[in-house]
Design brief:
- By secondary structure, the chain is α+β, with helices and mostly antiparallel strands.
- The protein folds into 2 domains: 30 residues; 72 residues, Homing endonucleases (Endonuclease I-creI, Roll).
- The protein is built from 3 helices and 3 strands.
- A hairpin with a 2-residue loop joins β2 and β3.
- The longest helix has 16 residues.
- It is extended, with a radius of gyration of 20 Å.
- The chain starts with 9 loop residues before the first helix and ends in a 15-residue tail after the last helix.
Length: 106
């Protein structure tokens, strides 16, 4: 990457470049633990009724404790921290390996 900001801004530009490089080259961060407040399933693209239905199905069919929460004026499913390990047990094998780093340690 080459900066052409002139001598006046060269130090600043190099500093930004170094921070950006460090951020890009660092390994993805794993979540260390299950969130005590609950873990969110991003369902913002669904209507409230659809999210309620999904939450109910998770509660009934899979014995999970879930609730709804508003996030950016859309509803998301929150899986209670006491149920999240069960959720991981049920779904882990279906999660694409390259995306597993987003989950708490399993």
């Amino acid at each position: 990457m080459k900066f052409e900001w002139g001598d006046k801004n060269k130090k600043y530009a190099q500093h930004i470049y170094n921070i950006f490089n460090e951020w890009i080259l660092s390994p993805p961060k794993k979540k260390e633990r299950i969130n005590e407040k609950g873990n969110i399933v991003n369902t913002q693209s669904f209507s409230k009724e659809e999210v309620e239905m999904m939450s109910k199905e998770l509660n009934v069919k899979f014995n999970l404790s879930t609730s709804l929460r508003l996030n950016k004026n859309k509803y998301v499913i929150v899986i209670n921290s006491t149920s999240f390990q069960r959720f991981l047990d049920l779904t882990y094998q279906f999660i694409i390996p390259s995306m597993r780093y987003k989950l708490p340690k399993y």
